[in-house]
């Protein structure tokens, strides 16, 4: 996948189109991504007595996974969504490169 945890992405399709957020989790086997503050769903949790005492219960808002094709990585320099490709750097290591030619991976 061309999206990694920690990337800032923009939603390009769906009910949250135009929203930006940070990637919390990537699910490569199903080609889905969980983005902070996007595609929020309500989950209900029952109150269950435990030996420790207090437990969270009620309704909770949490982000649900989005399909990776509905997201684009935001270029750090321009702040705009960009296409991503893979290329080899000077050391021969594969890195992600934006359409403008900027290296997106922090470790290189």
Gist?
0% of the residues lie in helices and 43% in strands. The protein is mostly beta strands.
Structural class: mainly beta
In what order do the strands lie side by side in the largest sheet? 6-3-2-1-7-8
Q: Which percent range describes the beta-strand content?
A: 35-45%
Task: Supply the number of helical segments.
Answer: 0
- Shape estimate: elongated
The string of secondary-structure elements, in order, is EEEEEEEEEE
Q: Enumerate the spans where pLDDT stays under 50 for 5 or more consecutive residues.
A: none
User: So, CATH architecture of the largest domain?
Assistant: Roll
Provide the gyration radius in Å: 18 Å
What number is the mean pLDDT? 91
CATH class of the largest domain: Mainly Beta
The biggest sheet amounts to: 6 strands, antiparallel
Number of strands: 10
Range of helix content = under 10%
CATH topology of the largest domain: SH3 type barrels
Distance between the termini: 18 Å
Provide the domain count. 2
